[in-house]
Each structure stands twice: as C-alpha cells, then as structure tokens.
Automatic annotation (TrEMBL):
Organism from which the protein derives: Geodermatophilus obscurus
Enzyme category, top tier: oxidoreductase
HAMAP family, per the entry: PQQ_syn_PqqC (MF_00654)
The protein's name: Pyrroloquinoline-quinone synthase
InterPro entries according to UniProt: Haem_Oase-like_multi-hlx, PqqC, PqqC-like, Thiaminase-2/PQQC
EC number: 1.3.3.11
Pathway: Cofactor biosynthesis; thiamine diphosphate biosynthesis; Cofactor biosynthesis; pyrroloquinoline quinone biosynthesis
Keyword terms: Oxidoreductase, PQQ biosynthesis
Pfam families registered for this protein in UniProt: TENA_THI-4
An example Gene Ontology molecular-function term: pyrroloquinoline-quinone synthase activity
Chemical reaction(s) catalysed: 6-(2-amino-2-carboxyethyl)-7,8-dioxo-1,2,3,4,7,8-hexahydroquinoline-2,4-dicarboxylate + 3 O2 = pyrroloquinoline quinone + 2 H2O2 + 2 H2O + H(+)
Thiaminase-2/PQQC domain location: 14-237
GO BP, one annotated term: pyrroloquinoline quinone biosynthetic process
Recorded family membership: Belongs to the PqqC family.
C-alpha cells in the first residue's frame, strides 16, 4: 500500500520528532555547552569522539556498497570526500571547508587538528589509545548496522544530521565563549558542518521519503533513526563515565 502526501508529511514530522532523543540533550553535552568541563574532560571527549569521526567514511562506504541506485551513489560519495579528503588534498565543501594552506583536507584531518588545539598529539589520536570500550562498541555497532541492514535504513540512520546544525552552532559558540584556551583554528570542523549537515540531511531525507512509501518501510526508517540516536547517546554515556574523575 502506498501512502498519501499527508501521510508523507506525517512521516517527515515523525522523523523530525526524533530530535527529542538527540544527544544534544545529554547531560554531558549540556555541561560542555555551559562551559562546565575542565581541560582534561574536553580532551577526553575529543579523543573518544575521534573514533566516531574516523568511522564515518567506512559507514558511508558500506551504504554505497549496498546501494543499487546510481544517482544516490553519485551524490552520497561526496560524504566520503568530505571526511577523508582526497589524494590531491581536496575535500570538504566549497564554502566553509577545512582549509590547510588553501587546500581543503577533510573532516578527519580537521578533528585531528582539534585534538592538537586541545593538547592531544596526532599519534595518540590516530591510534585511539584513549577510546573507552563503550564508545568503541557503539561505533562498531553503527558501522555494522550500515553494512548489514537494507541501504535505505542505513540512509535513514544518518538523519540525525537534521538536528546537527543547531548543535554545531551552539557548540561553536560555547567553545568560543567558555574555552578560550583552545586555538580558534582548531574549531574549523564545527564551522564546516554548519553547511555540510544541511546539504547532507536534505539529500538523505529526499532518499528516504522517495524509497519509504509503505507503513512497513517507514516504520523501519524511524527505527533506524532511533537506533542512531541510541548510538550517539550511548557514546556520551561512556564518555561521561570516563571523564567523571578528570
């Protein structure tokens, strides 16, 4: 059974309603944005969050591998370039990208530079020695989900990007206001996501509404987005516990 336009609007509204479960409401995120974290706690968060940042291209590659739609693949592959950069040093977006001497290097590089800005060495970021088991488990679960579930469900799980721009804007303002010891150049990742996330979420929402036209597929998409919210929340649970005594 194909649903009506009204049902589609209700579906999109239900997807957006998942914002109530987004990790911006987590107590750790609230304390960070209120300027209540110490330097070691910020470093703990940056080091652990890198495990997620580093996994994003693998998640997107899994979606590409399962996706039979050429036009979707053509647009989705840009996400990998945004995070990995490319062999010739390009990546990110035309405006608001991650620039290094005029060359855009991608989101992973930007997060490594955030690590440097908070006092973490590149090697200790890249080898993920500070990543706690709960974060590692949540990240692996997300990549496995993208690899093993139907590709449209994996796309739906990415729709947390609908909620990301507000969080990124709030986080950027909070870091500039409360954590002035961090080199402002290290905050380039957040600035880039202000433009990347709306672009990416618009495409993902287009794909999900086009391909999820029955009650069953729409319920699966909602469950996928709920799962992704659980992944992000679980990561902060683990980080909050790890940072408690720092």
């Amino acid at each position: 059974m194909t649903l009506t336009a009204t049902a589609t609007d209700e579906f999109v509204a239900a997807l957006r309603e998942q914002s109530r479960r987004y990790h911006d409401r987590h107590p750790f995120s609230r304390r960070m944005n209120d300027g209540e974290l110490g330097r070691e706690q910020i470093r703990c968060w940056v080091a652990n969050r890198f495990a997620y940042q580093a996994a994003i291209p693998r998640k997107d590659a899994a979606i590409l591998a399962n996706c039979p739609d050429r036009e979707v693949r053509r647009r989705w592959i840009r996400r990998i370039h945004d995070h990995d950069g490319t062999a010739d040093g390009e990546g990110g977006v035309e405006a608001g990208g991650i620039e290094a001497g005029g060359i855009e290097a991608g989101g992973i590089e930007a997060w490594l530079r955030l690590g440097g800005a908070v006092g973490l060495g590149r090697e200790e970021m890249e080898d993920q020695r500070h990543v706690v088991p709960g974060v590692r488990f949540a990240v692996d679960a997300y990549v496995t989900f993208a690899r093993t579930r139907p590709w449209v469900e994996a796309v739906a799980s990415s729709l947390t990007e609908l909620f990301a721009p507000d969080l990124m804007a709030e986080r950027l303002a909070a870091f500039e206001r409360h954590y002035t010891w961090i080199d402002p150049q290290g905050l380039a990742y957040f600035r880039a996501r202000l433009t990347q996330a709306p672009r990416d979420s618009a495409h993902a929402l287009e794909v999900v509404t086009e391909h999820c036209r029955t009650p069953e597929t729409r319920a699966a998409a909602l469950a996928a987005l709920s799962f992704k919210c659980d992944v992000l929340w679980s990561m902060l649970d683990a980080i909050d516990h790890a940072c408690a005594d720092r």
